[in-house]
Amino acid sequence: MAKQFACRDIGMECEFTARAETDEELMSQIKEHAKTAHNMAKIDAKTMKKMKAAIKSV
Ligand SMILES: [Zn+2]
After folding, report:
1. Number of domains in the chain
2. Residue pLDDT tens, the chain, 58 long
3. Which of 3, 9, 40, 47 could form a disulfide with 54 if both were Cys (CB 3.0 to 4.6 A apart)?
């Protein structure tokens, strides 16, 4: 089973989705995207919690 995250799932108006085999890999894709697309060099704890809650197993 893979893990999936979509920016839309946390209310962002963005078409980005990430998919990976592990949470760690997924989070690194999300962090990279947040940095380059959303100018979020650091993800705050509240957003991080929201993101983790939005991760689905697919
Ligand atoms: Zn995004």
Report:
1. 1
2. 999 999 999 999 999 999 999 999 999 999 999 999 999 999 999 999 999 999 999 9
3. 9
